[in-house]
Design goal:
Layout (H helix, E strand, L loop, with lengths): L6 E6 L7 H14 L4 E6 L1 H4 L9 H15 L8 E3 L5 H9 L5 H5 L2 H10 L6 H16 L4 E4 L4 H17 L11 E4 L27 H9 L20 H9 L4 H10 L4 H27 L2 H30 L3
Parallel strand pairs: 1-2, 2-3, 4-5
Helix pairs in contact: 3-12, 4-7, 7-8, 9-12, 10-12
Bound molecules: iron/sulfur cluster.
Length: 330
């Protein structure tokens, strides 16, 4: 008897072209999990409104992100990709779930506390508070068993589990409508931005997956290194150097030699950065090639999105039918 695949729901807010941090922190993992799990990939355009209510670029950004997903190797046949806003059941389930959790519980959410610190309380929208509730609806609409997340997102998965438990207890059915999903910690640590801070397009410290080799080289020249190594000949400390962390990821075959020559001073930072830029350029070359193909076939990209949305809608409607039946509001 063939065992049914577990379901994974993962998504990103559409911020346009993706960067190395997205690749290492999420996308590579998503591609690796294809086949083993049934994956659904959400373009979280409603979630994007939490931090930016402007929508002029939201469609273009969604398409740009979708092209990066496809270029990185996500297979639309195996893994439907769709916009949250096009599946109205997300909003409906979010509304029902919002009745099943207290504001006190949501106020204890550590990511909300961070936002309060960054934004001041008077700038916190209702959507910030309800963010994990909408996320719970995203996951449970597809009966996600597994959610690939960074450690900082684990509290949100815990809220999803609590909501699933509460729903199943209040509205019992056999089998229970919702699974209690588990967070699957993404294997790789985050890549730091070129300035040594968290990688973010708004800060301008990223290398984009679509950057051509000359742009990668130009950007990498600005990367921070070991502050104690001022010139070639000075001994360096690879373990505190950002560029070395990029070598670790994109140039594993040469890291031992680079470590030795950095520590002895034989290798200068300029040469080291050029080598690193070349390896990153090589690693991204197949993705750039696929992006060029998709950009020349935009009708195919739109068809992929449309087909993903039809498939997602079918699952979402079936779940909402179960939800309404269990709640006797069918
Ligand atoms: S030589 Fe390379 S690893 Fe060493 S400090 Fe410079 S950039 Fe970093």
């Amino acid at each position: 008897m063939t065992q049914q695949k577990k379901t994974i729901l993962s998504g990103m807010r559409p911020t346009g072209k993706l960067h190395l941090g997205h690749l290492v922190g999420a996308l590579e993992n998503w591609v690796a999990l294809q086949g083993e799990f049934q994956n659904y990939h959400l373009i979280a355009d409603y979630h994007a409104l939490t931090t930016n209510p402007e929508t002029a670029d939201i469609y273009a950004n969604s398409i740009d992100m979708l092209i990066d997903w496809l270029s990185a190797g996500l297979d639309p046949e195996q893994s439907p990709m769709f916009r949250q806003s096009q599946i109205k059941e997300h909003a409906e389930l979010h509304l029902i779930f919002s009745m099943l959790i207290t504001t006190a519980r949501l106020e204890r959410n550590p990511t909300l506390k961070e936002q309060v610190r960054d934004l001041e309380m008077e700038n916190i929208a209702y959507g910030h508070l309800g963010y994990p509730v909408l996320q719970a609806a995203d996951i449970l609409l597809y009966k996600g068993n597994v959610v690939p997340v960074g450690e900082d997102q684990l509290p949100h998965i815990e809220i999803t589990r609590e909501i699933a438990r509460r729903f199943n207890a209040l509205y019992p059915s056999e089998p229970p409508v919702f699974p209690e999903p588990e967070g699957k910690i993404t294997k790789f640590a985050r890549l730091t931005g070129l300035d040594g801070k968290r990688m973010s397009k708004s800060v301008g410290n990223t290398i984009l997956l679509s950057d051509p080799p000359e742009v990668i080289t130009k950007k990498l020249r600005t990367a921070v290194t070991d502050p104690q190594k001022l010139r070639k000949g000075d001994p360096g400390r690879p373990d505190v150097c950002l560029v070395f962390s990029y070598h670790n990821k994109f140039n594993p075959a040469e890291t031992a030699e680079i470590r030795t020559n950095c520590e002895s001073g034989a290798l200068g930072c300029v040469d080291c950065k050029l080598r690193c830029a070349a390896r990153i350029g090589d690693a991204l070359a197949p993705m750039r090639e696929r992006r060029t193909h998709f950009e020349a076939h935009m009708d195919d990209v739109r068809d992929i999105l449309h087909s993903g949305e039809l498939r997602a809608k079918e699952i979402a409607q079936a779940t909402m039918h179960e939800v309404r039946t269990a709640m006797r509001i069918g």
